[in-house]
Write a structure and sequence with these properties.
8% of the residues lie in helices and 35% in strands. It is mainly beta. It folds into two domains: 51 residues, Rubrerythrin, domain 2, CATH 2.20.28.10; 113 residues, Immunoglobulin-like (Sandwich), CATH 2.60.40. The strands form three sheets. Strands 4, 8, 9, 11, 12 and 13 form a six-stranded mixed β-sheet that branches. Strands 5, 6, 7 and 10 form a four-stranded antiparallel β-sheet that branches. β8 and β9 form a beta hairpin. The protein is elongated, with a radius of gyration of 18 Å. The termini are far apart. 24% of the residues are buried. The chain binds fe (ii) ion. Fe (ii) ion binds next to loops.
Length: 173
């Protein structure tokens, strides 16, 4: 498992750890004392948040539940080179408080690899802009500090423009 220090955004991998105090790589998080601090910012280990690997997708995009509506990444604008996204609805984005917020938004390629990640600070709106030049398909994922990792599913750039001609200002057929 991987963990994010929500104070300084340093990422720790259980398989590597890189934490002082003689913690062996591969040691489970349950075996680590809560006294441990992030060596990068000295933040408390209790502030580490799990980076979820399992992605949650909406069951039915046309009939979202409340929690899906709150966590699903949405496209605000898409052209051939860049995509602007938010988490939740544009008029009512996901909360950004201390205990409950979106910690990161990711651009994922069609093989499931992270192309770019944007960390969201406390009190910042969960919005991000990514360079998608060279990608025919992509996915956006957003990680919530309480509710896991949410994904849009694969989006095909050409198909999106066919279905959303109003967002077509820089796309030439
Ligand atoms: Fe949430």
């Amino acid at each position: 498992m991987r963990f994010l220090c929500v104070n300084c955004w340093h990422i720790y991998d259980e398989a590597l750890w890189e934490i002082d105090d003689g913690i062996e790589p591969g040691t489970g998080i349950d075996e680590i004392s809560q006294e441990v601090h992030c060596p990068s910012c000295d933040g408390s280990f209790e502030d580490f948040s799990v980076i979820e690997d399992e992605v949650i997708y909406a069951e039915n995009m046309d009939k979202l539940t409340h929690i899906e509506r709150e966590h699903m990444p949405r496209i605000i604008h898409l052209d051939m080179d860049k995509v602007e996204v938010c988490v939740g609805e544009e008029e009512e984005m996901h909360p950004s408080g201390e205990d409950h917020r979106v910690t990161a938004i990711y651009l994922i390629d069609d093989e499931g690899h992270i192309v770019e990640e944007v960390f969201i600070m406390m009190d910042e709106d969960p919005v991000a802009e990514f360079d998608i030049s060279g990608l025919d398909d992509f996915e956006i994922r957003a990680s919530c500090s309480q509710h896991g990792l949410w994904g849009t599913g694969l989006i095909n750039v050409e198909e999106y423009h066919r279905e959303h001609p109003e967002d077509d200002n820089e796309f030439e057929v």
